[in-house]
């Protein structure tokens, strides 16, 4: 039994008894006390958080969102094909890429500055007026919305195109008149005279007397010339070996065919030679762009590193090209063996023409 010690043994007292023994409290009372303490601690933490949040809101002010600068005119200009092609070209130029990457943040800071925000009403009015002016200009000049650099080049070459077209027509007409009025009558008279001396003097089997006598010499030369230039210039029509009154006529046809095959090739070679600096500049530009793409950014330091890498790569390419196209290959003469063949053909032709002359003398 628990023993209670009271201060006064007699009389009723309102003071609660003091537990002096080692009796333990009940579990239900302990749980309720712990729950009450946890609830009080949670309320205190929430109150402290609310106070801190209120203090932060009083001292920290969220900046207002800046209004965008009106750029309707700029967007309108960007819609033109000429401007789009220009931008595409500049995006492939390394210097323009570097300049754009380094000036873009600076321009953005200017557009978002307080001065521009203050002048926003005026800027908006000017932008609207400029955009309206562009719309009016498009109504007067509709080709602004469709004009490209290719069309501009075609229009610039119109005088040359018309001159070439009508000049060719005039030349063809002149040659046609000369053929009908001069060549054909003369040729017919020659054929009549040839028929006469074939019947009366010497039968040349329909071939000209003097020119056909040179066939033994000109035939091997014609065959040699044709076989070689066809190898050099394979694109073109072939000249048949039959159908000509003499080998001299065939020689004329071969010369015309040679120029018809060689002129386009020579023109292309001249154009390619003249365009070599441009082609190399385009190649160097591509190499520099690839080197810049490998850099983490287009800042001045990274751009300098990319330029150094591109220059070293171009130097390696130049060294390899010089090794593969050395002076010995450039100085070799591909026509050395051809010269001997020409001499042999000429000698055979001279022997053949001597035999032909002796044959004609025997008939006479």
Q: What do these coordinates show?
A:
- The chain has 15 helices and no strands.
- The chain has three domains: 34-145, no CATH class; 157-201; 204-363, no CATH class.
- Helix 2 packs parallel to helix 6, helix 10 packs antiparallel against helix 15 (336-363) and helix 12 packs across helix 13 (300-324).
- It is mainly α and 364 residues long.
- Residues 1-14 and 18-25 have low confidence and may be disordered.
- Residues 16-26 have a biased composition (Low complexity).
- Residues 1-26 are annotated as: Disordered.
Keywords:
single chain, 364 residues, mainly alpha, 3 domains, 15 helices, 74% helix, 0% strand, elongated, disordered N terminus
Q: Report the β-strand fraction as a percent range.
A: under 5%
**In this structure, how is the largest beta sheet organized?**
none
Mean pLDDT: 75
CA(first)-CA(last) distance: 176 Å
Give me the count of strands. Answer: 0
> What would you call the structural class?
mainly alpha
What is the domain total for the residues? 3
Instruction: Compute the CA-based radius of gyration.
Output: 51 Å
Unreliable sequence segments: 1-14, 18-25
What's the number of helices? 15
Compile the SSE list and pairings.
Blueprint: H1 27-59, H2 72-78, H3 81-90, H4 94-111, H5 114-118, H6 120-140, H7 149-156, H8 158-200, H9 209-212, H10 215-232, H11 247-274, H12 276-293, H13 300-324, H14 327-331, H15 336-363
Helix pairs in contact: 2-6, 10-11, 10-15, 12-13
Provide a concise account of the structure shown:
By secondary structure, the protein is mostly helical. The chain contains 15 helices and no strands.
């Amino acid at each position: 039994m628990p023993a209670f010690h009271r201060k006064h043994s007699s009389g009723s007292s309102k003071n609660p008894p003091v537990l002096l023994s080692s009796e333990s409290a009940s579990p239900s009372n302990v749980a309720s006390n712990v729950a009450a303490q946890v609830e009080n601690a949670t309320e205190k933490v929430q109150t402290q958080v609310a106070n801190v949040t209120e203090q932060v809101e009083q001292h920290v002010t969220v900046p207002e969102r800046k209004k965008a600068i009106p750029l309707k005119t700029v967007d309108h200009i960007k819609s033109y094909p000429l401007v789009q092609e220009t931008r595409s070209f500049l995006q492939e130029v390394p210097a323009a890429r570097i300049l754009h990457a380094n000036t873009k943040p600076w321009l953005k800071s200017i557009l978002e500055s307080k001065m521009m925000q203050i002048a926003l009403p005026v800027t908006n009015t000017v932008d609207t007026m400029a955009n309206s002016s562009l719309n009016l200009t498009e109504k007067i000049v509709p080709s602004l919305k469709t004009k490209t650099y290719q069309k501009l080049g075609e229009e610039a070459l119109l005088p040359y195109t018309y001159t070439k077209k009508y000049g060719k027509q005039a030349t063809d007409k002149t040659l046609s008149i000369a053929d009908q009025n001069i060549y054909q009558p003369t040729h017919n008279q020659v054929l009549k005279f040839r028929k006469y001396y074939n019947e009366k003097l010497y039968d040349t089997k329909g071939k000209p007397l003097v020119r056909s006598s040179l066939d033994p010499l000109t035939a091997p030369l014609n065959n040699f010339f044709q076989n070689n230039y066809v190898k050099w210039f394979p694109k073109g029509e072939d000249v048949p070996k039959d159908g000509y009154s003499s080998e001299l006529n065939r020689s004329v046809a071969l010369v015309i065919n040679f120029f018809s095959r060689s002129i386009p090739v020579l023109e292309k070679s001249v154009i390619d030679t003249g365009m070599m600096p441009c082609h190399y500049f385009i190649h160097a530009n591509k190499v520099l762009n690839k080197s810049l793409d490998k850099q983490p950014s287009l800042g001045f330091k990274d751009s300098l590193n990319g330029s150094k890498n591109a220059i070293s790569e171009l130097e390696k390419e130049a060294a390899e090209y010089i090794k593969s196209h050395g002076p010995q290959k450039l100085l070799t003469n591909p026509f050395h063996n051809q010269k001997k063949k020409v001499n042999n053909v000429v000698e055979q032709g001279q022997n053949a023409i001597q035999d032909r002359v002796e044959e004609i003398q025997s008939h006479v």
